[in-house]
Amino acid sequence: MNDTTLGCLFDPQLQQEIREKFYYLDADSHGRKRLFFENSGGSLRLKAAVEAKAKYEQIPDCPERYHDISMGLRAVKEKGIQDIMEVIFGAKPGQGALVTELTASQVMFQITRTILENVPGTNVVTTSIEHPSAHDAAQIFAQRHGKEFRVAMANPKTGGVDVEEILRHIDKDTCLLSVMSASNISGNILPMEEIVREARKIKPDLYIISDAVQHMPHAVLNVDELGLDGMNFAPYKAFGIRGCGYGYVSDRVAKMPHDKLGAKPEKEWELGTFPHPNFAAMSAIVDYVCWIGGYFTDSPDRRTQYVEGMTHIHLQERALLWRMMEGTEAVPGLRHIPGVQVFLDNPSVENRDLISAVGIEGMDFTFLREEYYRRGVTVFERVNTSLYSKRIVESLGLTGAIRVSPLHCHTVEEIDRFLVITAEIAKEFAK
Ligand SMILES: Cc1ncc(COP(=O)(O)O)c(C=O)c1O
Question: Of 15, 210, 265, 284, which is the most exposed, with the fewest CB atoms less than 10 Å away?
Answer without folding.
Answer: 265
